[in-house]
UniProtKB/TrEMBL annotation:
<dbReference type="GO" id="GO:0035282">
    <property type="term" value="P:segmentation"/>
</dbReference>
<feature type="domain" description="C2H2-type">
    <location>
        <begin position="42"/>
        <end position="65"/>
    </location>
</feature>
<dbReference type="InterPro" id="IPR056438">
    <property type="entry name" value="Znf-C2H2_CTCF"/>
</dbReference>
<keyword id="KW-0302">Gap protein</keyword>
<keyword id="KW-0238">DNA-binding</keyword>
<dbReference type="InterPro" id="IPR013087">
    <property type="entry name" value="Znf_C2H2_type"/>
</dbReference>
<dbReference type="GO" id="GO:0005634">
    <property type="term" value="C:nucleus"/>
</dbReference>
<keyword id="KW-0479">Metal-binding</keyword>
<dbReference type="Pfam" id="PF13909">
    <property type="entry name" value="zf-H2C2_5"/>
</dbReference>
<comment type="function">
    <text>Gap class segmentation protein that controls development of head structures.</text>
</comment>
<keyword id="KW-0862">Zinc</keyword>
<protein>
    <recommendedName>
        <fullName>Protein hunchback</fullName>
    </recommendedName>
</protein>
<keyword id="KW-0539">Nucleus</keyword>
<dbReference type="GO" id="GO:0000978">
    <property type="term" value="F:RNA polymerase II cis-regulatory region sequence-specific DNA binding"/>
</dbReference>
<feature type="domain" description="C2H2-type">
    <location>
        <begin position="14"/>
        <end position="41"/>
    </location>
</feature>
<dbReference type="Pfam" id="PF23611">
    <property type="entry name" value="zf-C2H2_16"/>
</dbReference>
<dbReference type="InterPro" id="IPR036236">
    <property type="entry name" value="Znf_C2H2_sf"/>
</dbReference>
């Protein structure tokens, strides 16, 4: 409930040390940090595509069907 309430209060407890981004959860910050590190842990099994978020891979996989 605390995390949910942060959305309404605008309280962003987690802040990026590379840019001005801030968010309400450590998970979102971890995903954001991949933009700075270039980490792309989600890899397509059909081609050489890779990305930093699982939802992007799901969208990409539609190109193979």
């Amino acid at each position: 409930m605390k995390v949910h309430m942060r959305k309404h209060t605008g309280e962003n407890q987690y802040k990026c040390n590379e840019c001005d981004y801030s968010c309400t959860t450590s998970t979102r910050l971890k995903i954001h940090m991949r933009k700075h590190t270039g980490e792309k842990p989600y890899k397509c099994s059909e081609c050489d595509f890779s990305c930093n978020h699982s939802s992007n891979l799901k969208v990409h996989m539609l190109t193979h069907s």
